[in-house]
Amino acid sequence: MLINILPQFISKRIWNMMQRKQWQSLARNMEDSKNLCVGSFADHENYPYEKYLLAHYQGQRENAFDFGCGIGRMIKRMLSEFRVVDGGELLTENLDYAKQYLRDCNSNSYNLHKLDGLGCDIRKSDCYDLIYSTICVHHIAPFSIRDKIFHDFYQLLKVGGAISIQVVYGIDTGNHWFNDPYAEATSNRVIDVSIPSTDHFPEIEKWLHQIGFKNVKFDIAPCPHPNADPNLKWLFIFAEKR
How far is CA 81 from CA 53, 63, 138, in A? Predict the structure, then answer.
């Protein structure tokens, strides 16, 4: 058993170090983090993320969690929808920038958590009404890491809570949802996860059901980048914990 587990453990750690190093190179200061980590910052700010993230959400508006919060861009926006919005982020640098970006917000309305990049274990459970994520999850190439993240999401949600996760759709990088491309993933953006068509939805829905999620929805929306590949869309995956 140990022989079978060890190679993947080593691969995860190597990929994790690569991921951290790659994103740190794009977050040397606040402006770099806006323009390189987020990318097209103004386009994202003008995009109606709340409309799509909350399209199917009918739960409580107390506590939300932003996975991959970066500098806190969506925390600030979602504070108009929820009483408290916490954020989780891989880079200490981005958490420091988030404190600056959120300085005009009530400090009791958000909390920031350092994540290890291999899951979303913040030593809490059953505490969030909504967990959401934007422009993050499709950069996590290996399925085995995303699988751990979504299992952690389930544990973090209250009964009656939901996830609403944005990923890319409509293009094909060759790395699909259930692949584990550790050897090929030499940088975060070289082999992003892609969902090329609706043909992939049934297996993803089945996997979410196996975790425990119900009422799974897939919403295809426009991409916010004006000069993007015309086939590139945003996909919002919604599911509830009942």
Answer: 11, 10, 25
Q: What's the CA gap between 103 and 179, in Å, rounded? A: 40
Residue with tokens 């090329």: 196
pLDDT in tens, 184-234: 655 555 578 999 999 999 999 999 999 999 999 999 999 999 888 999 999
Q: Which long-range contacts (CB under 8 A, 24 or more apart) does 223-230 make?
A: 223/168, 224/40, 224/43, 224/44, 224/46, 224/47, 225/40, 225/43, 226/43, 229/171
Break the chain into its structural domains and give their ranges: 2-241
0.90 cut: is pTM over it?
yes
DSSP annotation string for the chain: -HHHHHHHHHHHHHHHHHHHHHHHTT-SSHHHIIIIII-SHHHHHTS-HHHHHTTT--S-SSEEEEET-TTTHHHHHHTTT-SEEEEEES-HHHHHHHHHHTTTS-GGG--EEE--SS----S--S-EEEEEESS-GGG---HHHHHHHHHHHHHHEEEEEEEEEEEEES---S--TT---TTT-SSTTTT---B-SGGGHHHHHHHHHHHTEEEEEEEEE--S-TTS-TT-EEEEEEEEE-
The yes/no answer on whether domain 2-241 falls in CATH 3.40.50.150 is yes
Token look-up 């000069």 returns 227
| Alpha-carbon torsion, ordered 54, 58, 60, 65, to 10 deg | -30
d(CA 32, CA 218): 32
